[in-house]
Amino acid sequence: MAWRLIPLLLLLVWTASMCRARTRTDLLNVCMDAKHHKTKPGPEDKLHDQCTPWKEKACCSASTSQELHKNISLLYNFTVDHCGKMEPACKRHFIQDNCLYECSPNLGPWIQEVNQSWRKERFLHVPLCKEDCQRWWEDCRTSYTCKSNWHRGWNWTSGINQCPTGTTCRTFETYFPTPAALCEGLWSHSYKLSNYSRGSGRCIQMWFDPAQGNPNEEVARFYAQARSAGALPRGLEPLLLSLALMQQLWLLG
Ligand SMILES: *[C@@H]1O[C@H](CO)[C@@H](O)[C@H](O)[C@H]1NC(C)=O
Ligand SMILES: *[C@@H]1O[C@H](CO)[C@@H](O)[C@H](O)[C@H]1NC(C)=O
Ligand SMILES: *[C@@H]1O[C@H](CO)[C@@H](O)[C@H](O)[C@H]1NC(C)=O
Ligand SMILES: *[C@@H]1O[C@H](CO)[C@@H](O)[C@H](O)[C@H]1NC(C)=O
Ligand SMILES: *[C@@H]1O[C@H](CO)[C@@H](O)[C@H](O)[C@H]1NC(C)=O
């Protein structure tokens, strides 16, 4: 009787592995379902200034890339100048952060569903290369802010984010004592500080030279594979395989 089950089990194993393959490709070359993202990545030869590295394959439109360079972009009516003018050396990191957020098609492994009015999905724990985070922090130490989480808690009564009453404008270093505090705290853990370095293929680069291609493609492939390989083996698959094996042994015995 038992041997009759073997084809069924093999079919189950095969189906499971097909599901894994499917999951893996679904995590690659995708755009998040959020406020300004395109539904699919594609070429955008008119991307603006700091967003141009993504022009071969982007989730942002040219107008989005243009808008996010403005001091108060109409994308979110959000300003980094909420404690006076941010220094340009610091501001460029926020523009780059925005370009990565809006344009990158390589953040699929870190997309999570959310229950927010303005977007259906977000990024969570994107492993940011340590140098990119470190440099961001160093260049912003002397700029000013009034909050250590920029997602929540602003006073929006004027239509633009303002410091809520009870907060004080102080240096970034006060609100973000370490690079990790900045990169991880700023957008509610959208980023995680990676211990990997730029060029390792194991962390996402906010900055890259497109002449060498987009280094984040390989990073996404690595984490997509790790994720989908990790999904089943701890659960269904080894169970099915050992069942199949046991049945073989029963047949022999
Ligand atoms: C932002 O404001 C600064 C200072 O007022 C100005 O020099 C800069 O050109 C502005 N940037 C943009 C993109 O409007
Ligand atoms: C930003 O403000 C402008 C002008 O007040 C308004 O037309 C626009 O709808 C606002 N955009 C967002 C995203 O709130
Ligand atoms: C999302 O929010 C709505 C309204 O607040 C709530 O009814 C719903 O249960 C929430 N869904 C999840 C998945 O949290
Ligand atoms: C929000 O800002 C307005 C001025 O723009 C101020 O009158 C109000 O008290 C502030 N509210 C809070 C909760 O900070
Ligand atoms: C990063 O940390 C992980 C886990 O702690 C470790 O396995 C890995 O070797 C570290 N990588 C580098 C480049 O230090």
How are the elements arranged and paired?
Layout: H1 5-26, H2 62-67, E1 72-73, E2 78-79, H3 88-103, E3 111-113, E4 121-123, E5 126-128, H4 130-140, E6 144-145, E7 170-171, H5 172-175, H6 179-185, E8 191-193, H7 216-231, H8 236-252
Parallel strand pairs: 5-8
Antiparallel strand pairs: 1-2, 3-4, 6-7
The structure holds 2-acetamido-2-deoxy-beta-D-glucopyranose (5 copies).
Commentary on this structure:
It is a single chain. The protein has 253 residues and is mainly α. The chain has one domain. It is built from 8 helices and 8 strands, in the order ααββαβββαββααβαα. It has helices spanning 5-26, 62-67, 88-103, 130-140, 172-175, 179-185, 216-231, 236-252; strands at 72-73, 78-79, 111-113, 121-123, 126-128, 144-145, 170-171, 191-193. Strands 1-2 form a two-stranded antiparallel ribbon. Strand 3 and strand 4 form a beta hairpin. Helix 3 (88-103) packs antiparallel against helix 4. The protein is elongated, with a radius of gyration of 23 Å. The relative contact order is 0.16. The mean pLDDT is 89. The site of one 2-acetamido-2-deoxy-beta-D-glucopyranose has 2 residues, from loops.
